[in-house]
Amino acid sequence: MTEFSGVKLPEFDTMAGKHAQAAGLLEELAQTLYGELRSAGLDTAPATRLRELAERVTTQAEDLRRRQRLVHELQRQKVTFGRSTPAGSFLEIPDRLEIAKGLLDGTLAGRAALKATDGDAKALAELRKYASRTGDAEFVKAFLGTLGGRGVTRSPGSFATQLRDAMNREDAGRADRLSVSGQKALSMLATALAKGTNPKDPAYMGAGFLKDLAKEGRAEHRTGDTTHSGYQAQALIWRAHDGKTPFSKEFMEVIGRDVIAYEHEQRKDAWAASKDPLGSAFASAQIPVIDLAGALGLGTLLRPGTQAGVPGAKGGSSVLDDLFHAAKSSREASHTLLDHTPAEWKTSVLDYLLTTRWGASLYLKDHAPFNDMLVTATTGQDATSQKLASELTKIVADEVRGAFGKADDGNLEIRNRETFDRLAPLSYPVARAISANIDQLSRLLLNHATFGKVAAQDMSYALVLAASHDAGFEALVRAQTEHMRAALDTVAPVGLTASNAERLGFTKADVKKFDFDEDGRVDKADIKQFLIDRTVAEARPFSHIVEIRRQVLIAQGLNDKKVDESLKTMVRDAIGLLPVPGAKQVGELATGAFGNLINTQYDKIAGAAYDEVAKQIALQISEHGQGLDETHRTLADNRLAVERLAEQMLATAMLNKGMLDGLGFGKQKFAAGDGRTIKRFSEMTPQEYSEFLTWTRAAGGSNDLLDRFKSTFHRTSEVDDYLDLQIPSSSRRKE
């Protein structure tokens, strides 16, 4: 709580003046005393102490003068408020100068915004100079307090009206100025609103302010000759949000949820009519509530980063699209919107948005805000993110299932193109949700488990949609690559015994688990058996992803041999090369080979979702300038690319676990120094790295592991079963 002091004018002016006068007299006295003591050959310490006192009084006097100037400015601007007492009338001012400055600037900014709302173009330009002050809590409170819920709601309408007037008059220069000024003002309002409606922020305005915003949001307003709801105007503020100061869950509880309910109330009858036989016959669209910029024909001109006359500036957004844009920067805010079932509703908001309202989302083709919010909400490792990811997967699987069937040749075909195209905008967020929970795919396929209400067949149909998106397919493969690397890392190292287990990060129980021949020591034969088990288990989800990608390419009439550029890059940059974050390098050759790539950066991302770890490691690989594997630059098949990744991972795992120690290299080009160690991977040429992989197959026995991976990877019967396909042998790709 801000502390205030009371001052009386002109007594305060008199005190400030006399304090400054006293400081000058003390300094003069100190100088005189110093001269006399020095002339008399006496100790000058008393003069020094007097000078120090003079300096303190001078500092205090300067502080009083600053306060005096601020008090007069506050009074001149009528920002201060007074209180009458038996002792006289007092002016209350904040104890700290920065708080008083925030109070002054915030009030002036709020007044400028109100003047701009009344059509004052100069005030709109004046408002821009306060844009940098939104980090100051006192400024935000004074700014929003001056505007109030009504002022916040009216401001976007005024900006929009002035811009439309300039465009109607074909005044390009004025339109450009108003577009830029309006964008700056809306960005400022967005940051202030995010802070002022967050109970955890010092700028919090209280629950009453949120209620006022909701009241004004539902109220009818008039902008020029256009009547609109307050939410249509507030939406322009949400869309101007830069994400740096996320909106709180409390904002989404009060405003966000009410906006969704408001649109539902306003449109439910019209949407229902658009879906009945008569409405469908007249091609009635499912139209959402459009934001004010769209209603006035301004498109994106009040959206930060857009200039008047720029191609695409005529696009528009719905009120909910703008809300989703504000919610996407915070997982908590996204969860608050999606993981909620309103009173008297039978479905969650997520279900409603994906089914009942989905046609409205398609109307403006403004998919980025909703998709981004879905990615934010479903890719965390917390329980709510995983719940929403499973719900998204199940809903999409149920919706897309009817779009596909079996062609005459037994492959997948699209039987309802309209349904597929209608759901296609969701392909990437679905891919990201599955990627963040890629371990669930293994559980479904290997253990016949469920992911929420998602069974293996549901996951397969959701993957059809997800794998149809190029970037989505890349995310899936990267996540499964990381999952396989993590699985291989769980295998114990060669030489593990009860005596060294704790030092190597294992337990005595692990020794018994991995000691297959029960001789008290984990040897190479033991490790190889467990590597085979992990390899086979990880090949099955890889097979599922790649075969479904192949089938959806066939269904779309595309080349089923297509290899994605992203997979070429993954192979070329050897994404399977580096160790798993947190892994201990047990093999004596591994430490030398990985060299300075082993550091605490990897530990920092341990525990994140597999897709996030994969992205971070890929970034670190690029930072180290690695691009070792050029053998498959001309890859033309996704299967060959994944097999190459598997080979890299298996060779790395064998190196990590000490299975290559003691084999000897002779005069291999990838050997370093006297031939007893391997060169650091970052120092190998592509040819040397290729020779290392060849040597690993021949000397280390990775051929057997790779063959087991391939044989499992090439079996596609599970995909055939889950997608109701049965491909005749004559039509099958040669294994």
UniProtKB/TrEMBL annotation:
**Domain EF-hand intervals:** 502-537
For molecular function, the Gene Ontology terms on record are: calcium ion binding
- Protein name as it appears in the record: EF-hand domain-containing protein
